[in-house]
Write a structure and sequence with these properties.
Rossmann fold, elongated, single chain, 323 residues, six-stranded parallel beta sheet
Amino acid sequence: MNLIDKIRRKIARAHWLQPLISRTKGRVCFFIPDKSKGWILEAACREIAQRLESPYIFCGDYKGMPLASAYFFCHYHFYKSALQINPWLREKNAIVWFTHPKEEDLGGQETIDVLNTAKVVTMCSKWRRYLVDLGVEEHRISTIVGAADLNFFSPHQRGGGKIGFCTAYYERKNPDRIFEIVRRMPDQEFILMGRNWQDYPRFNELFGLGNLEYRQAKYAQYPDYYAELDVFVSASQLEGGPIPLLESMMSNVVPVASDTGFAPDVIQHGENGFLYPADETDPDVIVDLIRRAKTLTADVRQSVLPYTWDEYACSHEQLFKAA
């Protein structure tokens, strides 16, 4: 009998531990480091948690992880760090969210080896293929496309509406592409919703074009924002989602999106929206698609009804309960 087996037998005989162990049976621990609280991925975790049948707990301290039956990490870097401090996680039901790569080749073989100790959830087919190509064992990977709140985002009739973007300012969100789209369509009104755009070096030039309104709003106001739109544009070079894409489609807005993240999973080109290559260098290609989107008569909302938070949480709970 090895040391670990001996320790387990002693624990099993410790009657005072049994109530504690019983309370943690079936429990899911959502791990988000304290320094990352308030991040959009935390909000997504809470959407899942509040819909679970299983008991759950949130933890942000690498050195104070509670007893649980399953551990959910909303970023692969968090799992890497947690595993270094808590090597016992290798024997647990650890589920790791993979939204998109943070660095080229995920930082090397070390990351691949770490992911091969867990279950991995991607939000789109593209990143599933990417992980398999890098060496993550395919049987470990589940693809669960993102979600939006069916009741919170109501459909509206399109016609005469504006064109919208919904993104915080990051380079990977391709701000120069947004600039060129707005500049080349002076006959259209645009709304940009998101934080930190004052950090964009061409901020004054962008909003000096005269046909773009900039807003920063609370999430409760997002349905009203989407209700003003006919077309939603996702200009990103790299995405895991984006979740606003599904929110806009739930609101019956026609999407025009780069083919990254789950856009190719939810958009049938020319039927419920339009796709273009994420590395497209000609803004006029995107402008043409936006003009086509303005004339589309499809019921966009109907095409994304399966992508609800209830279904999303249910798919995750199956992983949490699996041995």
